[in-house]
Design a protein that fits this description.
By secondary structure, the chain is an alpha/beta fold. The chain is built from 14 helices and twelve strands. It has two domains: 237 residues, Type I PLP-dependent aspartate aminotransferase-like (Major domain) (Aspartate Aminotransferase, domain 2), CATH 3.40.640; 126 residues, Aspartate Aminotransferase, domain 1 (Alpha-Beta Complex). β4, α6 and β5 form a beta-alpha-beta unit. The structure holds pyridoxal-5'-phosphate (PLP).
Length: 383
């Protein structure tokens, strides 16, 4: 054990006018969804992503569920999902009656492997979910090539990690028919629990608002297009409270500051570890030249599972909190139950057993980062 201060794995922080905005929302009396702060956040997100429209939701999970409803899934339909992702990327489609097919990842970006995707693609597939792990774009060239003759298959970018990252100059979240964002308090921009559905096809906008508003045309009513609103379709209560949108606006207004801080943490880790990586058998994140990361997290790949377990324990004893990511979905109880058929995802199994995430948040100091690097190197060399 150590007497040095603990280095937290994550810590959400107030970065700008969040408290003032929340106070204003509460004093205005409008704290339900679709209020003035939501309008400002949507305007900002639309301007940044070029989306046809965006809808603020209670979580990224809820946004994925909306994408599943918009896909009009039928019995027998399947959705291809990476095994290396959070449960929600698959669960949302399973709830709408689809079966999932788990795709392996490629070892560089840790996003879906286009070669495995090509093997899985059949007539039952309605959508492919892609994750930009850590906020670094997956192999979108390869994925789009595989799907080039299947315009009926939608790409859903689960962009929980990727807001403000770029691929070939284009914003992550602007490439698929749908993209989903997370504002959970572990993400770059937070409001406790929250998310957004990004609609890149204008044809989805009208129905999306009906699904969002408990299956009613409430939005069209407030826009003056209908003289009363009524039940039209399926849906739910997906909307984010305007009090949380106020919180989120305060965060997003500071996007340049927040992203610069996170970039600083990422680069200091990368520079500190690079000279040791080869000798220690550590692999650092790979950032392809055409990708601008969103700096969501920093991970290392350890040489093997046993070393990861030992090093995580030793870092914890030194007051440094690390974690692993993700437990493979194809091997999980739910994954086996809800997949159309078992698939092999050996890269996912291997990466998941060796990946370790280092402490990462906006206000991690250079001293903290250096302490993590030194302790990690010491733990791996045993000196
Ligand atoms: C890739 C991915 N998708 C979706 C989610 C779920 O996000 P939320 O908690 O906002 O529903 C997470 C959560 O960490 C995630 O990592």
């Amino acid at each position: 054990m150590t007497d040095k201060p603990e280095i937290l794995f994550n810590k959400a922080s107030v970065e700008g006018a969040e408290l003032e905005h929340i106070r204003a929302a509460l004093e205005s009396g409008h704290t339900s969804s679709s209020g003035p702060f939501s309008a400002r956040v949507n305007e900002l997100l639309r301007a940044e992503t070029g989306a046809a429209d965006t809808l603020l939701t209670t979580s990224c999970t809820a946004a994925l569920e909306m994408s599943a409803l918009l896909l009009n899934l039928q019995p027998g339909d399947t959705v291809i999902v990476p095994s290396f992702t959070f449960v929600s990327s698959a669960l949302a489609y399973v709830r709408e009656g689809a079966r999932v097919l788990f795709c392996d990842i490629e070892p560089e970006t840790l996003g879906p492997d286009p070669r495995h995707l090509a093997e899985l693609l059949d007539d039952s597939v309605r959508a492919v979910v892609v994750v930009h792990y850590a906020g670094i774009a997956c192999d979108l060239d390869g994925i789009r090539e595989v799907l080039k003759d299947r315009p009926d298959v939608a790409i859903v970018e689960d962009n929980a990690h990727g807001l403000f990252g770029r691929w070939r100059g284009r914003p992550l979240g602007s490439i698929g028919r749908f993209a989903t964002q997370s504002f959970h308090d572990t993400k770059n921009f937070v409001c406790g629990e929250g998310g957004a559905l990004v609609l890149n096809d204008p044809d989805d906008v009208q129905r999306a608002w009906v699904l969002y508003d408990k299956g009613t045309d409430r939005k069209a009513f407030f826009q003056g297009f209908v003289d009363k609103y009524s039940w039209r379709d399926t849906g739910s209560s997906f909307g984010m409270s305007d009090a949380l949108a106020a919180y989120l606006l305060g965060q997003l207004e500071q996007r340049d500051v927040i992203q610069a801080k996170r970039r600083g943490v990422f680069e200091r880790y990368a520079e500190g570890l690079a000279p040791h990586a080869e000798a220690l058998g550590l692999r650092l994140p790979v950032v392809p030249e055409h990708c601008e990361p969103a700096y969501h997290l920093f991970h290392v790949l350890m040489p093997d599972h046993e070393t990861r377990t030992r090093v995580m324990k030793e870092l914890k004893e030194e007051g440094i909190n690390t974690t692993f990511h993700y437990v493979p979905l194809h091997d999980s109880v739910g994954g086996r139950q809800f997949s159309a058929r078992p698939t092999e995802c050996p890269v996912t199994t291997d990466i998941s057993s060796r990946l370790m995430r280092l402490p990462f948040h906006n206000n991690l100091t250079a001293d903290d980062t250096d302490r993590v690097v030194e302790t990690l190197v010491r733990s791996m060399t045993g000196v």
